[in-house]
Specification:
single chain; 9-stranded mixed β-sheet; Ribosomal Protein S5, domain 2; 2 domains; 437 residues; globular; 19 strands
């Protein structure tokens, strides 16, 4: 005999009558409203990604691989805010209080007036943050996957638990103007684990990423209701925690070997931030039926496309080669503006011909082999110029690049319309046109 429970579910019916409570509509324009108040932690890389500081009452989710430094980052941020006088609570569901204390000590933040707890029960957390002389302004939940609501039977980490726990906290936080920061685990594919709806529920979603074998960590904004997305913050994991990297270009290029074929410098743009990175390509004769295409830090599909364009449009012989592509320094580049740099690195690798050391590239490549414009060329050129680059290979633009500033401040710019012109450039070495930036 087995027992069968029949759940009584109410069949939803449509509205029977149109009578409801009257909601007052208001005008879109409210002249009395000012901008959001923002709490600035002083960790600039973090503040910028949040859109210029955390907004009271906002919910932020930070996802990332295990051990990448999510807890470290949030502990540093929350300690900085606490030291500025905000009331901050850090709830860890993963670590014991002593472990958190030890980390804080290692970070030199043991003195910060942060209130600490180690629990996983949402009801307990909400009861505990209630009251006190001053309302709690910041609450860190590390991590949302360990939390549970006690009137739901499923285990912590399941879809229902994660969703309900987040919902409860966000509702509470919005009502009391408290900012919450959730740590979220990610799946093998790099998505935040649990329901996708979690990302819809919060105001801001940040990903903390990086190659664990490198020191660099990138904090990337993928959703932000209070600021621009696609901003990045660059950090370096050191013995004493995460240090801000103010000038990532210098670091990403610091180990560049200038006379090696297959290395091209890309003037990338992440959010509002121009950044120079090195694209490395290696082409080796392959003994495989289908040669390898191995990519680190970029989109493999785009590499396949660039290879196909180079083969079809300018007749390069690539099909017999294994291709390895690497963005040096462990950073991930997402923008198509890297196409031209990748193409240049590939041509250079295939012809075993090093590129000029003071040359940067950016531009998108289309399937017809055309070189397309990308966002903010001026910003990229400026960054390249600042770092001592003297030549730039970029897409042809309708208007002339950047107004003149000073005579001696020059970066020579070659504007390409077709990928063929890139190949020609290496053959003829024709002097490019000069513009001032
Ligand atoms: P952690 O913040 O615990 O990662 P997460 O919460 O994302 O799982 O970071 C753990 C890693 O960071 C660990 O491998 C050690 C390293 N680390 C340092 O290198 N320096 C430090 O000062 C700290 C606190 C951690
Ligand atoms: Mg952690």
């Amino acid at each position: 005999m087995t027992e069968d429970t029949v759940a009584q579910t109410a069949v939803p019916k449509g509205l029977t009558s149109k009578k409801g409570r009257k909601v007052d509509f208001v005008s879109l324009n409210d002249p009395t409203q000012t901008n959001y108040k923002r709490y600035v932690s002083g960790i600039e890389e973090f503040d910028r990604v949040c859109g210029g500081g955390l907004v009271p009452g906002s919910a932020t989710l930070i996802g990332g691989d295990p051990g990448i430094g999510k807890s470290t980052l949030l502990l540093q941020a929350i300690c900085a805010l606490a030291q500025k006088g905000a009331r901050c609570v850090y709830v860890s569901g993963e670590e014991a209080i002593d472990q958190v204390r030890m980390r804080a000590k290692r970070l030199g933040l043991a003195e910060a007036p942060v209130e600490l707890a180690s629990t996983t029960n949402i009801r307990d957390i909400l009861t505990s943050v209630e009251g006190g002389e001053k309302p709690v302004e910041f609450l860190v939940i590390d991590s949302i996957q360990t939390m549970y609501v006690d009137n739901i039977e499923s285990a912590p980490g399941t879809v229902t638990q994660v969703r309900t726990s987040a919902q409860e906290i966000i509702r509470y936080a919005k009502a009391r103007n408290m900012a919450v920061l959730f740590v979220g685990h990610v799946t093998k594919e790099g998505q935040i684990a649990g329901p996708r709806v979690l990302e819809h529920m919060v105001d801001t979603v940040l990903y903390f990423e990086g190659d664990r074998s490198h020191h660099f960590r990138i904090l990337r904004g993928v959703k932000n209701r209070f600021g621009p997305t696609d901003e990045i913050g660059v950090f370096e994991m050191e013995g004493g925690g995460l240090a801000e990297v103010e000038n990532p270009s210098e670091i990403f290029l610091s180990q560049r070997n200038q006379d090696v074929a297959g290395s091209a410098v890309l003037a990338a743009l992440e959010g509002s931030r121009p950044m120079l990175v090195e694209v490395q390509a290696l082409a080796a004769p392959s003994s495989l039926a289908s040669p390898r295409r191995s990519v680190i830090g970029w989109d493999p599909n785009r590499l396949a496309m660039i290879v196909a364009v180079l083969e079809t449009r300018i007749g390069l012989q690539i099909s017999g080669c294994d291709i390895f592509l690497n963005i040096a320094g462990g950073i991930r580049i997402n923008e198509p503006a890297a196409d031209l740099a990748v193409a240049a690195a590939l041509i250079s690798a295939l012809q075993n011909n090093p590129l000029p050391a003071e040359m940067v590239f950016f531009g998108e490549v289309g399937l017809a082999g055309e070189v397309r414009q990308v966002a903010q060329p001026d910003l990229r050129l400026k960054e390249a110029h600042k770092l001592g680059f003297r030549e730039a290979i970029i897409p042809k633009s309708k208007k002339s690049i950047a107004p003149k500033k000073a005579k001696n401040d020059e970066i020579r710019v070659s504007e390409l319309e077709h990928i063929q012109m890139l190949a020609d450039l290496f053959v003829s070495n024709a002097p490019p046109k000069a513009y001032a930036v």
